[in-house]
Amino acid sequence: MKLEIEQLSKRFTGNQYPAVDNITFSMQAHEILAFVGPSGCGKTTTLRLIAGLERPDQGTIHLDQHIISDTRTFVPPEKRNIGMVFQDHALFPHLSVFDNIAFGLRGYTKKVKKDRVLELLKLVDVEALSKRFPHILSGGERQRVALARALAPKPTLLLMDEPFSSLDAHLRLEVREHIRNILKASQSTVIFVTHDQEEALYMGDRLAVFNQGKLEQIGFPEIIFHNSGSRFVAAFMGDSDFVRGKSIPTGYQTELGILKQQNDYSPGTDIEIAVRADDIDFKLNKHGNGRIINRFFRGAFNFYRIELDSGAIVHVFKLHTEIYQPGERVLTYFNAGHPLKIFAR
Amino acid sequence: MFRTEGLRSNRWRQTTPIPKIAYLAGWVALLAVIPVIYILIRALAGDPELWQRIIQTRLIKLFSNTLLLVLTVTAGTSLLGVSMAWLTERTDVSGRKIFRWLLALPLAIPPYIGAIVHLALLRPRGGLISQWLEGSNLAFIPLPNPTGFWGAAFVLIIFSYPYVFLLSGAAFRSLNVSYDEAARMLGRTPWQTFWQVTIPSIRPGITAGALLVALDILAEYGTVALLRFETFSSAIFVQLAGRYDRSAASILSGVLILLALVILYGELRIQGRAQFTQIGSHWRPATLIQLGKQQIWGFLALLFTVLVSFIIPVGLLLFWSTQGILDHQTFSGMQIGSRGLVSFIYNSIWSSGSAALLAVLFSIPIAIYVVRYPGKVSRLFSRLSQVGYAIPGVVVALSLVMLVNRFLPFLYATPLVVVMAYVVRYIPQAVRSSESAMRQLSPSLEEASRLLKRNAFQTFIQVTMPLILPGLLAGSALVFLSSLKELPATLLLRPAGFETLAVRVWIWSEEGFYFQAAPAALLLVVISIIPLYFLLRRESIFKQ
Fold first, then answer.
1. B14 touches chain A (CB under 8 A)
2. CA A146, A151, A153: angle at the middle one, nearest 5?
3. Do A78 and B450 touch (CB under 8 A)?
4. B452 touches chain A (CB under 8 A)
5. pLDDT per residue over A164-221, tens digit each?
6. Distance, in angstroms, between B517 CA and closest chain A CA?
7. Radius of gyration for chain A, computed over Cα atoms and rounded to the nearest angstrom
């Protein structure tokens, strides 16, 4: 199984900008690919184009060597053998859990149907609920039934559209671990949409970061996080702050001092360095380069917000024992054990 | 810049196929507007001399009569409806749960039956109250003249206020107590809160109800004819039934429709906005106002309204019916040849039933198209299909007489034309029910079905249909109820010998046989209560 998407675009009538703008990528069998990006970035539209719920304006979608969508072909959703878990779960309220899961099993004998449904009920651990109706299930149970229903016809590809967004925060962590185990156990090929970076990092074998209809970067979580391809990815995925500076022969000259690092830019280039709260540190110093404006207590850590003299804002982690008051002047400096990501300005 | 943009959009525009449902919806919208367009064309193509004569002799009088009645009744129903809703929803007046039901039940009584009771009681000579006053030597007490403007306005107000009552009651119910609390915390007294927060928030509900009443009054024939107050509807009826003058009738109808379209336009705009007032998840009911010693006045106001608009009319019909059935001569008068009450019931039910079924069937493509493919075209279709609200029964009749004669002569003088008239006139009610049912259905359910290997049609049958069925049934109950009560179009279009309950009640009472008409009228009310009960149970104010 292989999904290949080439130059896929979609603009909705009445909108000036395309919702999906010239997207190309491919994915392999048994992989979980997480689409992540802010709301309105095109991730859900891309998902719906793959499902066949929207028609693309241009581009090609191959699934398993078949063209399922291009300028001439449009295979309707019911003929694509793609499963989907919806944001609101979309369990049919007039059907029991059993009948919901059996809904996609058309053309099989009763016996085969029953066996397959029981198998799935067991897989998602809701055997006891088979006769219940959706409205009395809990959020987590609905989630698992929706997954079972989508997996029942053994789809070539499973799409999940923000499936955890309707769950309470505390439930979400528990459910997503359970769901990821099920997906891996069933060797499913999955595209998972979320607007939550942390969830994407947890769920995805690989990540695809979307912004304004474009695919900004696709790759393994570590690469996306530590070697962001664009300023947007660094800001969105890693909660990075940006410190401005200039390229010099030995590294980069900034407000926080000189960062000694392999330099790909010609001297004098204006650059920005993406820094995370664990990449920098500070100490109290009346003649420093900034001042503390706030402290946030995070249990094991104190999280400090610092305004540099240029007006730029950076954040720093300290141990929970290190407490300083807002207003104190500090000297902030680089303290990363790895190269930092540089972007030209 | 401009040029590249142009090129770009050209490359992007791939022909998205028009969904098949759009064609079906288009046909329905077309069928719904043909009668109006035909009448408007006929009116415009009318002989200029005739136009001039009508403008000089009739138009001003009819216009002022009609407008005066519409404004008075609309104002009266708004005042009465909102007060009743406020008493039953926001105060602790006793018996309010029962009153809520009793206040809605006059919807089962067509105003012309109300007018019959009104006349039977208050007629100067022969009216029951008039006779009783004379018999008791109290004849010096002046009785109000039951006919004319005030009679018609009175009858129409007491049988039309439930529309406003229901809509403003639902609006009161959906108001969140936190608005009230916020206003109080910002320093408003309860009285200021009521005028500055409560009333503005429920205004869309009140206005929507009032405009529906206005459309109804424009269309009303039976009441104004019985009480001899001439409006457009009754004038058109006379032109058609008495003088067979279709040209004059067309011209009057054209003017009437224009008036109605203006009101309908306002109503549609408000409908669009009213959708946003919904009960949120943090909704808490408002605290009831403690009336204390004033409670008795609230109770009496409710009791009086319910007595006048429901208990007295139904009680009298019941009394007269028993008397009529016991009295052999009156009873035999209820048989027309070999046909009796049973055949009237049968005709009423099958004609209204088929209209309900057809109207709902036709409304489905419109509802699916406008809800699932929102856009200018689908909204236009939806609005066009609601034009029926603006075509009074007499105008539907006129237009169908001419259209059927010309294009479907084999249907002429069959009961099917009556059914067609009901469908044209009441399809808007079905469209609204079906649309709101579709709106409550999450599109992801249909999408899930598509991804589980059902095509569009299978999805409709297996998923959409079972889930919107309650909404469809409500729509058909509404159309059934309206068709059952419909009078002018039935009178004008029915073939000889085709008699419904409404027709029979009318003929008997026009001849002055009020008591003979009572059983048929009572049956009409009782049969109407069945779909009405089903509809009211769905209303938020009857759910606890």
1. yes
2. 120
3. yes
4. yes
5. 888 888 888 888 898 999 999 999 999 999 999 989 999 999 999 999 999 999 999 9
6. 47
7. 24
Residue B5 lies in a domain: no
Taking the C-alpha atoms of residue B508 and residue B495, their distance in angstroms, rounded to an integer, is 18
pTM of the model: 0.84
Q: Count contacts between A and B (CB, < 8 Å).
A: 69
Nearest-by-Cβ selection for A104 from B442, B444, B453:
B453
Cite the residue boundaries of each domain of chain A with CATH code 2.40.50.140: 271-344
ipTM of the complex: 0.82
Yes or no, beta carbons of A53 and B450 under 8 Å apart: yes
Q: Which residues of B touch A93 (CB under 8 A)?
A: 467
Q: Which residues of B touch A51 (CB under 8 A)?
A: 447, 451
> What domain range is B193 assigned to?
19-279+289-542
Per-residue pLDDT tens for B452-471? 999 999 999 999 999 999 99
* Chain A residues lying within 8 Å of B452, measured CB to CB: 78, 103-104, 149, 153
What counts of helices (H) and strands (E) characterise chain A? 8, 20
- Distance from C-alpha of A92 to C-alpha of A132, rounded to nearest angstrom: 12
Predicted confidence (pLDDT) per residue in B187-236, tens digit: 788 788 888 888 888 888 888 889 889 999 999 999 999 888 999 888 88
CATH 2.40.50.140 for domain A271-344: yes
Element (H, E) at B261: helix B246-274
The distance of A149 to chain B (nearest Cα, Å) reads 9
- Smallest CA-to-CA distance from B505 within B522, B492, B493, B489 is with B522
Q: Which residue has the tokens 């300023």?
A: A231
Tell me, yes or no, whether B156 lies in a domain.
yes
Buried b (16+ CB within 10 A) or exposed e, B298-315: bbebbeebbebbbeebbe
Closest CA–CA distance from residue B377 to any residue of chain A (Å): 13
CB contact under 8 A, B442 and A150: no
Query: Long-range contacts: B299-302, Cβ < 8 Å, 24+?
Result: B299/B93, B299/B94, B299/B95, B301/B83, B301/B84, B301/B87, B302/B84, B302/B87, B302/B88, B302/B93, B302/B95, B302/B96, B302/B99, B302/B103
Closest CA to B142 of B122, B157, B121: B122
Helices (H) and strands (E) in chain B, counts: 27, 0
Q: Does B447 touch chain A (CB under 8 A)?
A: yes
Number of folded domains that form chain B:
1
Is B14 inside any structural domain? no
> Where do we find the tokens 């022909």?
B15
Residues of A with CB under 8 A from a CB of B: 9, 11, 13, 18, 51-53, 55-58, 71, 76-80, 82-84, 86-88, 90, 92-94, 103-104, 106, 149-150, 153
Give the architecture-level CATH label for domain A2-236. 3-Layer(aba) Sandwich (3.40)
CA distance A21 to chain B (A): 11
Half-sphere exposure of B271 (CA within 13 A, CB side): 18
Residue B375 to residue A52, Cβ atoms within 8 A:
no
